Q: What sequence folds into this?
């Protein structure tokens, strides 16, 4: 990996991958943001005003002429710039052909027809402009996770703040409570719970403790235990950690995520590659055809040059891809607008069309299929009479802790404490990676995992309690055993629970023909299996790092179009390596929203079936529009060659444009039963 992968360096200005010679980007950085859209709207206003003053309002003839001239200037400004650059490089694209067609229309006195050509064409390109800087915004959002400096321990009593780029492998950094880690490394001192959801997708903070032999772990070829490794960009909990750096800033997990986003986002879509190939043949063919018409008329028919030029201009207007140019953008605009009404943000026509072709969908677990925070799911007392004491003991002890699991227990069980029953916990102490001990009303109390009680109780945990723990573990729960005054009160299970609407969504998608739906998650395999089985998914892949998710997406794409639905930073590489990346909106990270092709802005996965159905209808409308446009051109060009005058040619040509626009506007009335199916939505946990 090169130094360019450094999160800080990624903020630098990168080369515009949509330069004029590479596509239809018009490089409006020399003016102000959104300039092309402003010019396109302006050309539409002047064209409309010109038509009104020419046909509806009694006004001097120079007024519509000036308005059409203004349309030429506004609608053709960016097209002229792009055409100049492409011609200078020896390439003739649709931009150039549209200019020639507009000039030809003006040459034969059809300024209105030339104006509408430029207006519609400029509008189509302006619709793409908002997505041009997506890669840069994605990388910038990723880079915000990594601190710019690190606290390096130079001596037992000396800590120095340095730039993260200056960190070397083997340096020891100090990580303060509630701050983000600045480097990948191995914990050598301190204990804390680290929130790794931004990188690994782990829904519950992971307890970290010092490695017994950091140098051996540093040299080891195998993976470092999860309890000892940390990643740059993750959030430390309430403890102070000292971490030995194992990767330079340019080689960190976060830097690799950035690099994957950058490299995948710079690749052209198959549709764009097809359009590029089409332009290479279509535009030169039309230009040569127009020249051939002039040459044939002058040389073979011996007619005046003016007559041959007039016929050639009629052919040029007939062959100009006006309807072709607006066929896709009009459908995209209507589809995007309809999607927005339903709380779905689609970033352009490619994603909107591609979503309908997917046959596989991979779901991230945390925050997508589940709420993304732990909840108490099981209370298993050792006997029925111990139920109340189990609940009151848990609330009394865990209310003193700021650990996310403790917060979940306090939040969910406090309402179950009987009125008037108050128990007090004192001498609350955390046992690293195990649990907590305390005195509750003077009685020794322990709450923790099996490892903790195996160390505390030489006789072992009672068989019934162990069986309960094993059963809950198999169901994907994180468990805590409770013992008070030497008596085992029972077990509590905690889990990041599925959204109520997730299962109906899976059923609807399967009914729509989505044959392969899987979970890919950073959580452990047992938890992923539990969620997949509960929701009726086809498979579950747990314990995945970002690059592992990319590999899984590649496997799914080999079977056909595959979409990725997620909400975290760790999902971004998989999103951009999928056919369509879909982000959960309100809860989604900034990078997921910037990287995704489609965002469910209402944080409602129940909108996904509607988005798929709308995508399929949009794709159908686009195919219909392209067919109409091509048929009209194929029929109109021969007609002009045998004598059809420019008036009827323009009428038919512009009529085809209005037809494809009207067809596209049908998408604004698109309805689907699933959108109004009344899926009940569970309230988000506090």
A:
């Amino acid at each position: 990996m090169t130094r360019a992968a450094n999160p800080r360096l990624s903020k630098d200005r990168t080369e515009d991958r949509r330069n004029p010679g590479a596509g239809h980007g018009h490089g409006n950085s020399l003016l102000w943001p959104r300039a092309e859209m402003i010019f396109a709207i302006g050309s539409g206003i002047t064209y409309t005003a010109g038509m009104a003053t020419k046909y509806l309002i009694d006004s001097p003839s120079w007024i519509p002429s000036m308005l059409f001239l203004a349309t030429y200037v506004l609608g053709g400004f960016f097209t002229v710039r792009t055409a100049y650059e492409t011609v200078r490089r020896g390439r003739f694209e649709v931009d150039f052909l549209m200019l020639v067609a507009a000039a030809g229309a003006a040459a034969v006195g059809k300024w209105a027809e030339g104006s509408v050509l430029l207006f519609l064409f400029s509008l189509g390109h302006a619709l793409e402009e908002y997505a041009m800087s997506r890669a840069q915004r994605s990388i910038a959002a990723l880079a915000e996770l990594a601190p710019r400096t690190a606290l390096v321990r130079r001596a037992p009593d000396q800590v120095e703040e340095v730039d993260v780029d200056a960190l070397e492998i083997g340096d020891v950094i100090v990580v303060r409570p509630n701050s983000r880690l600045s480097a990948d490394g191995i914990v050598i001192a301190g204990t804390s719970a680290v929130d790794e959801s931004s990188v690994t997708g782990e829904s519950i903070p992971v307890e970290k403790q010092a490695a017994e032999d950091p140098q051996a772990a540093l040299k080891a070829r195998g993976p470092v235990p999860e309890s000892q490794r940390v990643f740059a960009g993750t959030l430390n909990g309430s403890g102070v950690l000292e971490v030995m750096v194992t990767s330079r800033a340019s080689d960190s997990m976060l830097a690799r995520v950035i690099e994957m986003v950058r490299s995948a986002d710079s690749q052209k879509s198959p549709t764009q590659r097809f359009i590029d190939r089409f332009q290479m043949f279509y535009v030169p063919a039309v230009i040569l055809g127009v020249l051939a018409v002039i040459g044939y008329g002058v040389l073979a028919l011996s007619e005046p040059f003016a007559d041959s030029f007039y016929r050639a201009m009629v052919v040029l207007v007939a062959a100009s891809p006006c309807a072709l140019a607006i066929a896709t953008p009009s459908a995209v605009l209507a589809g995007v607008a309809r999607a927005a009404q339903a709380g779905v943000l689609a970033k352009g026509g490619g994603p909107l069309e591609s979503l309908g072709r997917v046959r596989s969908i991979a779901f991230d677990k945390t925050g997508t299929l589940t709420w993304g925070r732990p909840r108490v799911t099981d209370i298993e007392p050792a006997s029925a009479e111990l139920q109340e004491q189990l609940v009151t003991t848990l609330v009394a002890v865990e209310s003193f802790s700021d650990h996310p699991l403790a917060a979940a227990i306090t939040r969910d069980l406090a309402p179950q404490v009987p009125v008037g029953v108050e128990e007090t916990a004192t001498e609350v102490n955390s046992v690293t990676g195990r649990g907590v001990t305390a005195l509750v009303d003077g009685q020794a109390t322990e709450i923790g995992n099996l490892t903790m009680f195996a160390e505390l109780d030489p006789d072992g945990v009672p068989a019934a309690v162990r069986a309960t723990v094993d059963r809950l573990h198999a169901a994907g729960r994180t468990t805590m055993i409770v013992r008070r005054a030497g008596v085992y009160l029972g077990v509590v299970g905690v889990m990041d629970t599925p959204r109520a609407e997730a299962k109906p969504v899976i059923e609807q998608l399967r009914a729509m023909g989505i044959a392969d739906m899987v979970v890919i998650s950073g959580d452990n395999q047992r938890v992923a299996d539990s969620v997949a089985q509960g929701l009726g998914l086809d498979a579950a892949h747990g314990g995945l790092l970002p690059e592992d998710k990319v590999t899984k997406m590649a496997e799914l794409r080999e079977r056909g179009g595959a979409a990725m639905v997620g909400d975290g930073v760790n999902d971004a590489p998989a999103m951009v390596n999928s056919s369509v990346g879909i982000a959960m909106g309100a809860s989604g990270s900034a990078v997921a929203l910037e990287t995704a092709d489609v965002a469910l802005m209402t944080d409602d996965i129940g909108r996904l079936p509607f988005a798929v159905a709308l995508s399929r209808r949009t794709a159908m409308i686009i195919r219909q529009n392209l067919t109409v446009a091509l048929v009209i051109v194929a029929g109109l060009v021969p007609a002009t060659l045998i004598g059809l005058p420019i008036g009827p040619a323009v009428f038919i040509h512009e009529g085809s444009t209005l037809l494809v626009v009207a067809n596209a506007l049908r998408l604004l009335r698109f309805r689907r039963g699933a959108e109004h199916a009344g899926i009940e939505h569970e309230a988000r946990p506090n």
